[in-house]
Amino acid sequence: MTPSIGAVVSDIDLCKQLTSTQCSEILALLVEHHVLFFENQPVTPHQHRDLAANFGALHVHPVYPHVSDVAEIIILDTSVDNPPDNDSWHTDVPFIESPPMGCLLSARELPPSGGDTMWTSCAAAYDALDDEYKSLIENLTAEHDIAKAFPESRYGKTPEAQAQLAAARQKNPPMIHPVVRTHPVSGKRGIYVNDNFTTRIIELGPDKGAEVLQFLTSHVARPEFRVRWEWKQYDLAFWDNRLTQHFAFADYLPHRRVMHRATILGDKPFR
Ligand SMILES: O=C(O)CCC(=O)C(=O)O
Ligand SMILES: [Fe+2]
Predict the structure, then answer these.
(1) Nearest atom of ligand 1 to the alpha carbon of 105
(2) Mean pLDDT for each 10-residue chunk of the chain (271 residues)?
(3) What CATH code is carried by the domain that includes residue 14?
């Protein structure tokens, strides 16, 4: 779709069990293009889970609600009663030791217009840095905190929600990862700090750390590194969560938008 990111994959039925050749082809395309779009794939939650499971073990989210009998499928059901809050750049679940390698997002119910999603290539963003900046951030590490993205004001409104959030925080203490990570398959390097979850850079003082974080998080969002997708019902996006970030437009209220997500675990980020 652009020189940096995005491809549309056609002539495949994701409701059927994939062959191992198809899985390897999809993975190769994912590594090359960072985010893949498959149109008209009306997967059921069980099919969605089984599809994602071809690519690795699945994560069960500690806060988001899930489909009633499929714990691995998150429901993102946003409306006036539950306003969208993914309109900031982030990678998913960086607060665990081995964050997701990818996510599969299915559009279930869409507003009449709006509700697009953007992805950005953190590899293209890294490549565009000058050598001096690359060496400045080379050996830095940063902290990622679930509490920053899931604040109590939003996710702890009832006593039950508060207890669930407290348990999620306790089970997921702040996690430290390299600021620049290397993709385990392509060997490409990319920026691995984001607006939603990253709280501080460990090796820098608060002022310099905040300045570097601010620079990197706005740099990854530059228009030339991104692609934007206008959803149709049953479109399915598969992104490589290791070297991308995404941003979901929150421009469709008072309409409702429902998405389902499967989250595939990956490996521990390394320099
Ligand atoms: O709703 C979307 O388009 C994306 C939401 C999001 O951030 C996610 O599914 O991880
Ligand atoms: Fe996300």
Answers:
(1) 9
(2) 97 97 98 98 98 98 96 98 96 98 98 98 98 97 97 94 96 98 98 98 97 98 98 98 98 98 98 96
(3) 3.60.130.10
Answer whether residue 39 is part of any domain.
yes
Q: How far apart are CA 126 and CA 128, in angstroms?
A: 5
**Is any atom of ligand 1 closer than 6 Å to the C-beta of 246?**
yes
Question: Is-above-0.90 flag for pTM?
Answer: yes
Instruction: Show the domain range for 235.
Output: 7-265
- The DSSP secondary structure of 152-207, one letter per residue, reads HHHH-SSHHHHHHHHHHHHHS--EEEESEEE-TTT--EEE---TTTEEEETTS-HH
Number of domains in the chain: 1
How far is residue 25's CA from residue 30's CA, in Å, rounded to a whole number? 9
Closest atom of ligand 1 to 257 CA is 1
